[in-house]
From TrEMBL:
UniProt keyword annotations, A-Z: 2Fe-2S, Iron, Iron-sulfur, Metal-binding, Oxidoreductase
Protein name (Swiss-Prot/TrEMBL): (2Fe-2S)-binding protein
UniProt keyword Metal-binding, yes or no: yes
Pfam families: Fer2, Fer2_2
Coiled-coil segments on the chain, per record: none
Cell membrane keyword on record: no
Organism: Paractinoplanes globisporus
Record domain 2Fe-2S ferredoxin-type: where: 1-77
Length: 162
């Protein structure tokens, strides 16, 4: 079957098998290997991407289901050569160690800040509760999201007063 979708602002059309999962479509067909595949049980969340702006576990979505939709992966987070504040936050606050969970974490946390620009620690922890990090103990991830929230708020304030 043929599918057409927009991935990171670029329209792509490919012939695929109907059973192909979105995570494999992104990684193996489009070579967007920033999206990771970490389990067979829909538990780890390392495969999170956005479909029409909403975080989804791409191992639970058929590529065929993304036909006609807009998909964004971690490769599409940076804009105009600038890292997204959430990426900067993970860098500044050591929100990663091995980095395996990081792409999915960042996609979920970016979506959280888009809806709730000033989340509490509890809200951040709830947002990432469907995702597993084996390394960090989560505290630095929460700190990274807080860093991004604070710096985004400061940047927005600067724009208002400029
Ligand atoms: S690969 Fe583990 S939840 Fe998708
Ligand atoms: S940084 Fe290693 S799994 Fe999260």
């Amino acid at each position: 079957m043929q599918v057409t979708m927009t991935v990171n602002d670029t329209e792509v059309t490919r012939e695929i098998e109907g059973r192909l999962l979105l995570v494999h479509f992104l990684r193996d067909v489009l070579s967007l290997t920033g999206t990771h595949w970490g389990c067979d049980t829909s538990n780890c969340g390392t495969c999170v991407v956005w479909m029409d702006g909403e975080p989804v576990k791409s191992c639970t979505v058929l590529a065929a289901m993304a036909d006609g939709h807009e998909v964004r992966t971690v490769e599409g987070l940076a804009q105009n050569g600038e890292l997204d504040p959430i990426q900067q936050g993970f860098m500044q606050c050591h929100g990663l160690q091995c980095g395996f969970c990081t792409p999915g974490m960042m996609m979920t946390c970016r979506a959280l800040l888009d809806k709730n620009p000033d989340p509490t620690d509890a809200e951040i922890r709830e947002a990432i509760s469907g995702q597993i990090c084996r390394c960090t103990g989560y505290s630095t991830i929460v700190r990274s999201v807080r860093w991004a929230a604070v710096h985004e708020a400061a940047a927005a304030q600067q724009e208002v007063t400029a």
